[in-house]
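Subject: sequence -> C-alpha cells, single chain

Hey, anyone have a minute? Need the predicted structure for the following. Not urgent.
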Amino acid sequence: MLRNEGDSEPPCSRMRRVTTVGAMLLFLGVVVFVCNSPQTVEQLRRASRFGWIADTTESEPANCTKTCVIPSAKANSTQYENARAWLCDVGMRNMGKSCSDFTDSDNAPFNAYYQAHKAAQGDEACCFGNSDGIHDCLAEIQTECCAPACVVPSAKATSNQYENARAWLCDVGMRNMGKSCSDFTDSDDAPFNAYYQAYKTSQGKKACCFGNSDGIHDCLAHVETKCSIQSTVDTEASRITAECCKLMEDNNILPYSTWGSLHDQATQDWWNNHDCNNAKCFTSPTEEKDCCTLKKTYHIQPYSTWGSLTDDETKDWWNSHDCNNAGC
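Reply:
Had a minute. Here:
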C-alpha cells in the first residue's frame, strides 16, 4: 500500500550497483576511454592497447515534440464533425482564437488547442471524445523525436573501409559494450549508431568516425539529425498509461511505496483501479531516452538506488550511457 510523504514507514531497500569503472571513477580518479576506430582492424587493435582520450562533450538528449492529430479514418465521421463544431465554437473562443487562424492542415485547430492546454490537462487535451479525456477519443498524440545519429553514406556502404570498420566494430567495439552486432538489426547503420550513442558523451562526434584513429580524418561515417515517430497515444490503454505516468511525475509518486504529494482519495482510487503501480513509462526499447528525464521520472539516485525503475532494458541503457555521471 502506498504511503503519503511524511508517513512513518520502514526504509526502502536500496540496490547498489558498484562496478569496476564506477569504483575507479569515484576512488582512484582514473578514466578509461575506448579508442575510436582506425581505418583497418589491425590499426585499431594496436591503438586500443594504448587508448585514445577524446574531448569530453555534453550528452545530447533527443528533441521530441508531441502533436495532436486526427487519424484519416475518422476525418469524415460524425464524431469529427461534432468535435470540430465544439472546437471552433467553444474551444477556440475560450482561447481568444478562431479555427480560421489555423489553416496549415485539418489537424491544425485540434493541435493548437492541445498545445495551449497540455500543460494543465496533459494528453486529455487531445481526446475530443468522452469528457474524461481517456475514453472514445477522436484524436491521437504522435511523438516525433529528433536526435543525432551516426550514419554511413550509401556510397561507402560497400567499400573496403566499411568492411574493415564493421569487422572491428562487431569484434572489438561491441565486445567492449557487452553487445553484439546481431543485437542491432534495424538497418546497416544500426551497430555504428549504437556505438556512437554509447560513447558520444565522452568522445563526441569522434565516436562516429570509424576512420583514422584521431577520430577526425578519413571518416567513414558522419553525424546527422534523424527524426522519427517514436510513439502514438491512440488507444484507451495507452492513454491510461500516459495518465499514470503524468500522475507519477507531477506528484513524485513511488509505485508500491509512497503517494508523494498526491492526497486526493478519488485520484488515488483511480491510480489503483488502473494498475498504475505497474505502468511502464518507457515502453519501447528503441525510444530515445534522456538521463535526466529517467532520473526525475523514476527518482533514481546515481550509484545508490534505482528508485521505482524495474525495467532491465532501461537500466542497461542508463549504464551504457553513463547516466550516473549526468550533470542533472
